[in-house]
Amino acid sequence: MWSLAEIVRSCADTGLSFPETVMARDSERSGMDPRSIREIMDSRLVDMERSVKEALSGDPRGKFVGGDAALMGAYGAGHTPLSGTFAVEASRIALAVSTYNASMGRIVAAPTAGSCGILPGMLFGFGSAYPAPRERLVEALTVAGGIGQVIARRATLAGATGGCQAECGAAAAMGASALVFLQGGSPEAISHAAALTIKSIMGLVCDPVAGLVEIPCVKRNGSLVALGAICADMALAGIRSAIPPDEVIDAMRSVGHSLPESLRETGTGGIAATPTGIRMKEALL
Ligand code: SF4
User: Fold this and answer.
1) Other CB atoms closer than 10 Å to residue 188's CB: what's the count?
2) Where are the domains of the chain?
3) How far is CA 268 from the centre of its chain?
4) 217-229 pLDDT, tens digit each
5) 206 bridge partner residues
6) Residue 173, by phi and psi: left (phi above 0), alpha (psi -120 to 50) or beta?
């Protein structure tokens, strides 16, 4: 059974770190040696970094989206942001990468294309605020991957099956856990950061205007980095989810199954069904 509790227990039993445990378990399952797995994670980080650079250096545009990252950058440069400089920088990166996805640019689906800005926003936002050795960022990406694996196996990562909680919610949970790792949190804190995030996002619907991964997707990427960051801080402060993390993920699956079809990527409910959303869709026809 895929379980965060098992990973945490294994860390305690073996003395391995959270990412080492994820790699060891992956190695057992795949037959690949841990060094090869580490190299793969490193190459994913390289791809992610390239995506961030390309997204920030251009002015990507979709059908309906574009320019939000530049606005956030200008705001961050000229103000003391209410949510803190880390959150604003992470949001800027997330907006840029997510918009780059809408313009068919290079992205790393983490875990999906629709949520592709959140994890790079949190990892590289952290890297710019608190320079970390590359090896540490690779391990943080592995932590995020380990959390994503458990969510995928116990619930889903597909908006069409579980709503946006399964895409952007999972990405924010993965990022929150990665941040806790980067800040030296325990395996238990890493798993609870994911649970705290998922509980705060539970039930989030998938409602893309005109069926395009643009509205509300890009701005969700830009805002959920902050949710993940505060949940990481809560976990680092010693706050724990009263409901065990695995049970939280199971509840997310159950909520996803309860969502009507109109709120699972069909573009027929929620924001997509507003008068403006419908007009935007009709303008494309
Ligand atoms: S609203 Fe739907 S399409 Fe957009 S990011 Fe969320 S799950 Fe993906």
Assistant:
1) 19
2) 4-284
3) 24
4) 999 999 999 999 9
5) 264
6) alpha
pTM of the model: 0.98
What's the CATH code, domain 4-284? 1.10.4100
Torsion, CA 30, CA 34, CA 36, CA 37, rounded to 10: 70
Q: Which residues line ligand 1 (CB under 6 A)?
A: 114-115, 159, 164, 167-168, 206-208, 213, 216-217, 220, 265
Residue 206 has pLDDT above 90, yes or no: yes
Token pair of 202 as six digits: 């539970």
Q: How far is the CA of 132 from the centre of ligand 1 (A)?
A: 31
At 115, the amino acid letter reads: S
Identify the residue whose tokens are 């190299």: 39
Atom index in ligand 1 nearest the CA of residue 114 equals 5
C-alpha of residue 223 to centroid of ligand 1, in Å: 14
Q: What percent of the chain has pLDDT over 70?
A: 100
Q: Residue 88 C-alpha to ligand 1 middle, in angstroms?
A: 22
